[in-house]
């Protein structure tokens, strides 16, 4: 097992824990900003899960190429930050 795989597995464990806790928060709140943060955490889990599956060769990395880079490899790392940014914007707008 390579060091990269161990790091991915460790990240997967902690993001899975965060995802579980985020889903618990989701069930207790109906606030749009918090729901967007939860969606961002779940998207982060999907990113790490996809990276781990690609590392093991179980996920197709050539499923869509854009400029020589797989599309999913471009979308998954950025997606959580998009949701976090929208959530913070909603929080700022709501507090005014």
Give a nutshell description of this structure.
This protein has 96 residues and is mainly α.
Overall geometry comes to: globular
Average pLDDT, rounded to a whole number, is: 87
Order of adjacent strands in the largest pleated sheet: 1-2
- Straight-line distance between termini: 51 Å
Strand content: under 5%
Number of domains: 1
Report the biggest beta sheet as strand number plus sense, adding barrel if it closes.
2 strands, antiparallel
Total number of strands:
2
Portion of residues within helices: over 70%
Strand/helix succession: HHEEH
Class computed from helices, strands and strand pairing:
mainly alpha
Question: How many whole angstroms does the radius of gyration measure?
Answer: 15 Å
Topology:
Layout: H1 3-28, H2 32-55, E1 65-66, E2 69-70, H3 71-95
Antiparallel strand pairs: 1-2
Helix pairs in contact: 1-2, 2-3
Describe this structure in words.
The protein has 96 residues and is mainly α. It has one domain (3-95). The chain is built from 3 helices and 2 strands. The chain has a two-stranded antiparallel ribbon with strand order 1-2. The mean pLDDT is 87.
């Amino acid at each position: 097992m390579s060091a990269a795989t161990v790091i991915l597995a460790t990240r997967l464990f902690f993001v899975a824990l965060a995802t579980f806790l985020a889903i618990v928060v989701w069930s207790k709140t109906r606030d749009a900003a918090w729901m967007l943060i939860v969606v961002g955490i779940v998207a982060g889990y999907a990113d790490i899960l996809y990276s781990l599956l690609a590392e093991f060769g179980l996920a197709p990395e050539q499923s869509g190429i854009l400029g020589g880079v797989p599309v999913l490899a471009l979308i998954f790392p950025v997606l959580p930050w998009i949701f976090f940014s929208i959530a913070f914007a909603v929080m700022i707008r709501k507090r005014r």
